[in-house]
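Journal club prep, shared notes

We agreed each person brings one worked example of a sequence with its structure written out as tokens. Mine is Acetyl-coenzyme A synthetase. I'm keeping it raw so we can talk through how to read the token line rather than staring at a rendered picture. Sequence first:
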Amino acid sequence: MPNDHSARQYHVDAAKYQEMYAASVADPEAFWAEQGKRIDWIKPYSQVKDVSFAPGDIHIKWYHDGTLNVSANCIDRHLETRGDQTAIIWEPDDPEEPAQHISYRELHANTCKMANVLTDLGVTKGDRVVIYLPMIPEAAYAMLACARIGAIHSIVFAGFSPDALGARVNGCDAKVVITADEAPRGGRKTALKSNADAALAQCKDSVKCLVVKRTGGETSWNDGRDHDYTALAKDAADSFDPVEVGAEDPLFILYTSGSTGQPKGVVHCSGGYLVYAAMTHEITFDYHDGDIYWCTADVGWVTGHSYIVYGPLANGGTTLMFEGVPTYPDASRFWQVCEKHKVNQFYTAPTAIRALMGQGPEFVEKCDLSDLRLLGTVGEPINPEAWNWYNEVVGKGNCPIVDTWWQTETGGHMMTPLPGAHELKPGAAQQPFFGIEPKVLDPQTGEEITGNGVEGVLVIADSWPGQMRTVWGDHERFEKTYFSDYKGYYFSGDGCRRDEDGDYWITGRVDDVINVSGHRMGTAEVESALVAHPKVAEAAVVGYPHSIKGQGIYCYVTLMSGDAPTDALRKELRDWVRQEIGPIASPDLIQWAPGLPKTRSGKIMRRILRKIAENDYGALGDTSTLADPSVVDDLIDNRMNRD
Ligand code: 6R9
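Then the structure, token by token:
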């Protein structure tokens, strides 16, 4: 029988939410001055907020005269009271391999060792370090070691290709890349080091490579460049004085896809980000001392940054880090891990829920999930069917579900129901977090739409401490992307509906970003990968509804004249894109298009391509501006079957 949580004392109940929310938007300075005390400062701040969303003068600063060290906040300050408490539970890919329980004291020693090794490689405050690791404890040590030194980490998801890795190393001019020999995942191994080798061939000779031994698999070795972390760590000292950094000194860069061009480096800074990650982690998940908390994300995504490492550790929590996948060795793995480690809060993505739902309830039912108290989702809208399954089969109708809407750019949760404060609605992100002022705008006029029962684009009226500060090396792009369409607001790129009760429902991206299994992919990135193939003349990429992934990648490809459209070429193009970007960008459907629908000025009419990909070609809307309307008929006749 599941535990009865009805008598639970939540951090925030309905009345407290109302009162705190009102205070947070009435006087943000006072509210955040108080919340800033959640973390330890070396030099306390006297300034809380210095923000402008005004065109030409976008700047965002929080606590900017305060100084701190993020790793000291996540480790050292807990040593006295909880040195022997488990900070990280590590569950490996192979269930036969023992799990590790890393105490705060051990986390301290390991982070210091990593900081010493990085320092010996020449890394100092402000330098960039790229982390390209499997989900192993060293990934957390590496993040925290950078923070300890005041260096800036940029994690590249281990599923990304050498080209994508190389571009990111160059993009932030990294001094060191940290990788591992191999990454085990779902019983298979990815040759990470050889990917890193291929990436580093595209980078400056001075970039060093620090290699963690994970499997002991064979790797090539470049003596001048490669350094064996496992050997160096043995002899490294296990103490390292945390370096004092300013609140606005960057903590990390994380590349994310946008609607145009190549991925941009989202910059998060030390003070405000940590306050926001800690606060949202505690309140959204109703985290209490002693709880075992598990977020299934990868540290390669923002969710892993804020809700595997920084938020939970800043709160002195116990956070579970999982190397594997939900379906290995079988579809009960998530639930077995919950049972084995007595997980209290479980946070995953709708795509995983949908995939597991398809395997049947027996994989869940055979596990003892009585310690589960709260469930969360993130990454994409959750359909009510998946929500109900999660609620009933996993949560036994007894665990509140927090559907958390936020973004790489926002650093932490922006809208979510809070357990104990809100009546849940399946599929709704519901209410803003403290200090967040969502507004719905008319996409055409940019005017605010007030009242309830309305729909439009979602913007945020004022800053919050977790907000990104800039695009790495390109502040103009920051302003253009987020602040130019709707002046005076942060534009999320999402659409939303505010229902009759004033609850928010995210309706999905309104730009050319698609969301594949909760991962953001810019259609422009896939297109540029496709047109880089010598046989491709032109390509247009759109999303279409996919029952497991949320959205699938639908590509329209025009070949160079003389090249034959064959299934073999389809496969070649698919492999090509995987090679250029990574498996998550793998096209689901490729349609040969003799021509693409364009306006007379040569703009591809994506609206039409989207409709065809969605099988909704009865309602193509106005096609009168097309240069050659006949191409549309051909595309409809030859459209691909969806899943
Ligand atoms: C944290 C993360 C951000 C985009 C965002 C939106 C979608 C995320 C969602 C959601 C509906 C939710 N998204 N959470 N849509 N409901 N609970 O996912 O960051 O990878 O940057 O993606 O994901 O479209 O704009 P990121």
